[in-house]
Specification:
With 142 residues, the protein is mainly alpha-helical. The protein is built from four helices and two strands. The longest helix is centred in the N-terminal third of the chain and has 29 residues, at 15-43. The protein has helices at residues 2-5, 15-43, 103-114, 118-141, and strands spanning 78-85, 92-98. Helix content is 49%, strand content 11%.
Length: 142
Amino acid sequence: MEMYTKTARLNMEHGFVKFVVRNQLDRDRYDQEMREKMDQRSSQTVPARRTRRVPRRPDRAVYTPPVARKPTVPPRAVLFRLEYCDTSSGAVRHESFLEGTDLAEFCASFAKKAGLDEKRQRALLERLQKEVGQDESSNTRQ
């Protein structure tokens, strides 16, 4: 029975066992260093990282049928067109007066483009007020 009392044990002098022990000690030392670094980092205030503000995907092109593509603002009707001959170039110019446009502003912009003085601008305004007034009175009779 003496044979069975001796049990097989690892030979601690063997190179493989020495390697395992050294590896465990190195791993313990490394873990200790990492814990210390994490403690130091948590105690320090770290500025926030910059994040990119780029969308993940580009916006999809949405199909809109032709009926829906129409502008929401209804087009304004042209009440009259004013034609004049440009004295510097001799070209005939056209200005359209749209419904809802202020007559005084229209005359001011027209006078500026045509190079009219203030006296002629006032005369144009009076004439257009008279014409627009005649159109309105004829429209109300009908």
